[in-house]
Amino acid sequence: MIQKVEVDVPTCIGCGTCWVVCPDTFREVEVGEEYKAGTTGRLAAEKQLREVAEGCPSLSIALFDDTGVEVFPTEARREELRQRLQW
After folding, report:
1. Which residue in 7, 30, 65, 76 has the most C-beta neighbors within 10 A?
2. Is 16:74 a contact under the CB 8 Å cutoff?
């Protein structure tokens, strides 16, 4: 069960999908001259959290279970993103 959500603000591209789809958990935050994702401190349903995190194009949303283990993104998903971004 998801107990914690974190956003890696430096890697967030500010696409807005998370705060539009899941406004209970995510909000837009002004960072300098850009808008990035932030968290509200509340958790939406686990299915919705997983869908939003898996849909994040920069994998900037991390989901943690009740033992504090990061369950998403997996290392395999991070490697997949690294491979896609290589020139």
Report:
1. 7
2. no
* Strands, E assignment, 15-79: 26-31, 34-39, 61-65, 70-72
Complete domains list, the chain, with CATH: 2-85 (3.30.70.20)
Residue indicated by tokens 């991390």? 62
pLDDT at 63: 97
Whether the Cβ atoms of residue 51 and residue 57 lie closer than 8 Å to each other? no
Residue 85 has pLDDT above 90, yes or no: no
Helices (H) and strands (E) in the chain, counts: 3, 5
H or E, element range at 5: strand 2-7
Among the ranges given (7-21, 23-37, 73-87), the one the predictor scored with the smallest mean pLDDT: 73-87
Long-range (24+ apart) CB contacts under 8 A made by 69-77 are 71/2
